[in-house]
Amino acid sequence: MSVLRSGSPHRPARSLATVTGTFLTLLALLLALPATAGATAVRRAPEPSHPGQDWAGSQIARHEGTAAGRAAPPAGSLAASVEGVDVSSHNGNVAWSTLWNSGVRFAYVKATESTSYTNPYFAQQYNGSYNAGMIRGSYHFATPNTSSGAAQANYFVDHGGGWSRDGRTLPGALDMEYNPYGATCYGLSAAGLVNWMKDWFATYKARTGRDAVIYTSTSWWKQCTGNSSVFGAVNPLWVPRYGSSVGELPAGWGFHTIWQYTSTGPTVGDHNRFNGAMDRLQALANG
């Protein structure tokens, strides 16, 4: 029978200490390892590098052309329609009184892009159109590969994209078009883009109580969402097409709400037609 003598090593205690030390060392190594594949799935693209060059239709004209670039209202327009414009920082300080005197009655103003850019001319454009008598709203240029839909919707609301029932403020709009920085569909699958937009729209509605407008072209929509029809029953459609008619609409929409019919109109370039009389535009503003 073995006897533990005084001064002899206490092997069980030493073994426990060794195991514990080894475990802690391994744990530290594991915590120091690079991100795993699961984290790689949410790796984001860099923030936009030239957001002042990105506005509603900037990439539509680049990828789809401008047809005749019509500077006058298209022939055969509905009598029940309202003339409007959309602007961004590339327009600088806008001559709102000139536009009002020419018959323009509503405006959309770019407020934000991703979660890093705000339009430096936003106050002059957003407040200036209102002060001229117009119904106005703001829009967000989406970059779905830089951050989540919720993050961008919150950034938009916090930087000019809010809404109030004052009869003069349109619901915010989400600009979904060709990626100015790389892959046309932002490196996302059709399902990924649809889910990103669902996230954006749900967050915007939770913050404002309104369903946002969506700006998109039929060609981009078909290519990048698989011609999804999930938004047509809820989100008003603002469609760009520079020609004599609005043309084919994306799946899910039986009619358009706003038509951006030219990128070369007077004073600011982008001109739009609301598909209805002034009382329907006011109804859209009032919610």
Main sheet?
Answer: 8 strands, mixed, barrel
Which ranges are low-confidence, i.e. pLDDT below 50, for 5 or more consecutive residues?
Answer: 1-13, 30-41, 68-72
Query: What is the subunit organization of this protein?
Result: single chain
Terminal Cα separation, in Å? 91 Å
In the sheet with the most strands, the strands line up as: 1-2-4-5-6-7-8-9
Count of alpha/pi helices:
9
Question: What is Rg?
Answer: 27 Å
How big a fraction of the residues is strand? 15-25%
Determine the mean pLDDT: 87
> Which H/E pattern describes the elements?
HHHEHEEHEHEHEHEEEH
Structural class: alpha/beta
Shape: globular
What does this structure look like?
38% of the residues are buried. The protein is α/β, with parallel strands linked by helices and 287 residues long. The protein has an eight-stranded mixed barrel with strand order 1-2-4-5-6-7-8-9. The longest helix has 22 residues, at 11-32. The protein has nine helices and nine strands.
Quick recap:
The protein has 287 residues and is α/β, with parallel strands linked by helices. The chain is built from nine helices and nine strands.
Name its key features.
8-stranded mixed beta barrel, 287 residues, 9 helices, alpha/beta
Write the layout of secondary structure elements.
Layout: H1 11-32, H2 37-40, H3 58-64, E1 82-87, H4 96-101, E2 106-113, E3 117-118, H5 122-131, E4 135-141, H6 149-158, E5 173-175, H7 190-208, E6 213-215, H8 218-225, E7 237-240, E8 258-265, E9 269-274, H9 278-286
Parallel strand pairs: 1-2, 2-4, 4-5, 5-6, 6-7, 7-8
Antiparallel strand pairs: 1-9, 2-3, 8-9
Helix pairs in contact: 6-7
